[in-house]
């Protein structure tokens, strides 16, 4: 390994003759500072930038291991060689445990010393390379995305790898995971960063207008088209077109989009003139695109045109401590916006945030933090300030890795027997007297067991109503805990209101 005279070695040796010998070994390559006592060594360590420490164990005023302890507390990365004439296994183990990099037993020659130093400095160089790599690639944020978890590091690296390409990127992930932020980062990292970035949410635009939004229209193309209008495709020329929730696009429009992607040309609504543009496509969906293809809701040929580079945004529950990093950033921002004095979360809130499954991901976290800031004012967020979640016990949400009873990210045993009350009792089917056949036999036990079994629709109704009660009437939140859609609950409630039994009478 190449070194220079600027590299300084501190040699701590109380024997003058040994110090001169070791200094002679090193002087051609390094600048050598010599200390004959422990206190002198500590002073030199504090006043100089030391590249390597070599210390004897037995010194007149202290142990060389005390110097090792001091060096480790002030310069944890400093390579240290311990030398001693009284080598033993216990001493070596103790020195290495305290942070020494290697040891030498007296007497030793120049070659042994040089090999030891070379090995240590080579390891140090490799560690420096690793540390530099971590600084470069393990980031707590990337453009407007916050998070240093391993799943997010993978996202950042994919973005950097494909940003310069014109290849289409297909972003998947649950709602609220930051797919649009990911698309913005892709554009910002690309060579098109100085060109337009146009985002279009296909789910937020009426189906009859989405073609016009993408391709534009000419005057009089349809009722209400009083003037011509440029579409997103033309506005994004030279830059990036981001189509969010592309799964909401109708099949006939998907065929027109496919032609646009293949040829780079399109015609505004109501026009026969073709316009050619240079656009990089990024799309996103919170659905499983392959499942949509199998169900016939998404064109297979369009899927393969767009799904060149897949990029999955991980859910918040899989991102570990990113939850607290994002929550802290949101708390700072919203406190500043609202003129509040919040600074941090207490330990119970932090622990709850880490264990809560966040079905709404970052969007839900943002909603919760903003609610806290608007309705409260303090320096520290406590459990009593949490909206809705404060009505559940902190133990309800399971740690990362899944719940015991409810599956991954679902509160274990969300319903207790006592909540059901009288509705747990099935309708009476008649009294049973002590004289009835089998009243004292096994058949009586079977009768009692069968009476404890409720009809399926009744059990389903009880579970859903209990979940809604536990969520203070919040049906979407209850649906998230039950792992069903809110529309399913609304539909079942309507059926219960229309009929005593949605399945009819047997």
| Rg value | 35 Å
Shape: elongated
Distance between the termini: 86 Å
Gross CATH architecture of the largest domain: 3-Layer(aba) Sandwich
The tally of structural domains comes to 4
| Number of continuous helical runs | 20
Domain Response regulatory: 8-121
Pfam family, one: Response_reg
Modified residues (4-aspartylphosphate): 56
Protein name: Sigma-54-dependent Fis family transcriptional regulator
What characteristics describe this protein?
506 residues, alpha/beta, Rossmann fold, 4 domains, five-stranded parallel sheet, 18 strands, disordered N terminus
Q: Would you give an account of this structure?
A:
The protein has helices at residues 16-26, 38-47, 64-74, 89-98, 110-137, 150-162, 179-189, 207-215, 232-235, 251-263, 289-294, 300-306, 322-338, 347-355, 361-375, 417-420, 442-451, 456-470, 475-482, 486-498, and strands spanning 8-12, 31-35, 52-56, 80-84, 102-105, 141-142, 145-146, 169-172, 197-201, 216-217, 229-230, 240-244, 265-266, 275-276, 280-285, 309-312, 344-345, 380-381. A five-stranded parallel β-sheet has the order 2-1-3-4-5, sandwiched between helices. The chain is α/β, with parallel strands linked by helices and 506 residues long. It contains 20 helices and 18 strands. The chain starts with 7 loop residues before the first strand and ends in an 8-residue tail after the last helix.
List the SSEs and their pairings:
Layout: E1 8-12, H1 16-26, E2 31-35, H2 38-47, E3 52-56, H3 64-74, E4 80-84, H4 89-98, E5 102-105, H5 110-137, E6 141-142, E7 145-146, H6 150-162, E8 169-172, H7 179-189, E9 197-201, H8 207-215, E10 216-217, E11 229-230, H9 232-235, E12 240-244, H10 251-263, E13 265-266, E14 275-276, E15 280-285, H11 289-294, H12 300-306, E16 309-312, H13 322-338, E17 344-345, H14 347-355, H15 361-375, E18 380-381, H16 417-420, H17 442-451, H18 456-470, H19 475-482, H20 486-498
Parallel strand pairs: 1-2, 1-3, 3-4, 4-5, 8-15, 8-16, 9-12, 12-15, 17-18
Antiparallel strand pairs: 6-7, 10-11, 13-14
């Amino acid at each position: 390994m190449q070194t220079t005279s600027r590299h300084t070695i501190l040699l701590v040796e109380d024997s003058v003759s040994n110090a001169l010998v070791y200094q002679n070994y090193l002087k051609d390559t390094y600048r050598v500072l010599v200390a004959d006592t422990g206190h002198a060594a500590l002073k030199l360590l504090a006043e100089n930038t030391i590249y390597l420490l070599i210390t004897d164990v037995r010194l007149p005023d202290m142990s060389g291991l005390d110097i090792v302890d001091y060096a480790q507390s002030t310069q944890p990365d400093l390579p240290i060689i311990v030398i001693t004439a009284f080598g033993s296994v216990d001493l070596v183990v103790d020195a290495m445990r305290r942070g020494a990099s290697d040891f030498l037993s007296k007497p030793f020659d120049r070659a042994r010393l040089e090999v030891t130093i070379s090995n240590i400095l080579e390891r140090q160089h490799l560690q420096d390379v690793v540390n530099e790599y971590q600084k470069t690639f393990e980031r707590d944020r990337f453009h407007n995305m916050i998070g240093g978890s391993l799943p997010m590091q993978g996202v950042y690296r994919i973005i950097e790898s494909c940003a310069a390409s014109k290849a289409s990127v297909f972003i998947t992930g649950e709602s609220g995971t930051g797919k649009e932020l990911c698309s913005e980062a892709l554009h910002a990292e690309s060579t098109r960063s100085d060109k337009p970035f146009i985002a279009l949410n296909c789910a937020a635009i009426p189906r009859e207008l989405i073609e016009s939004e993408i391709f534009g229209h000419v005057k009089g193309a349809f009722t209400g088209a009083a003037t011509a209008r440029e579409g997103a495709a033309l506005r994004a020329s030279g830059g990036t077109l981001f189509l969010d929730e592309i799964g909401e696009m109708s099949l006939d429009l998907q065929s027109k989009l496919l032609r646009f992607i293949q040829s780079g040309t399109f015609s505004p609504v109501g026009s026969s003139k073709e316009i050619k543009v240079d656009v990089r496509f990024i799309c996103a969906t919170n659905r499983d695109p392959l499942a949509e293809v199998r169900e016939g809701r998404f064109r297979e040929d369009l899927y393969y045109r767009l799904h060149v580079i897949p990029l999955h945004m991980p859910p918040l529950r899989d991102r570990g401590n990113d939850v607290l990093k994002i929550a802290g950033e949101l708390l700072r921002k919203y406190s500043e916006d609202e003129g509040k004095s919040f600074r941090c979360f207490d330990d119970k809130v932090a622990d709850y945030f880490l264990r809560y499954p966040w079905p709404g991901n970052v969007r839900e976290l943002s909603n919760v933090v903003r609610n806290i800031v608007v309705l409260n004012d303090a320096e520290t967020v406590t459990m009593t300030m949490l909206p809705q979640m404060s009505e559940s016990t902190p133990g309800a949400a399971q740690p990362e890795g899944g719940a015991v009873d409810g599956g991954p990210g679902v509160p274990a045993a969300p319903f207790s027997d006592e909540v059901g009350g009288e509705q747990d009792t099935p309708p009476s089917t008649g009294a049973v007297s002590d004289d009835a056949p089998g009243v004292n036999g096994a058949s009586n036990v079977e009768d009692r067991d069968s009476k404890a079994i409720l009809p399926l629709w009744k059990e389903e109704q009880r579970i859903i109503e209990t979940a809604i009660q536990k969520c203070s009437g919040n049906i979407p939140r209850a649906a998230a805990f039950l792992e069903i859609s809110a529309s399913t609950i609304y539909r079942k409630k309507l059926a219960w209101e229309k009929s005593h039994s949605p399945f009819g009478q047997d």
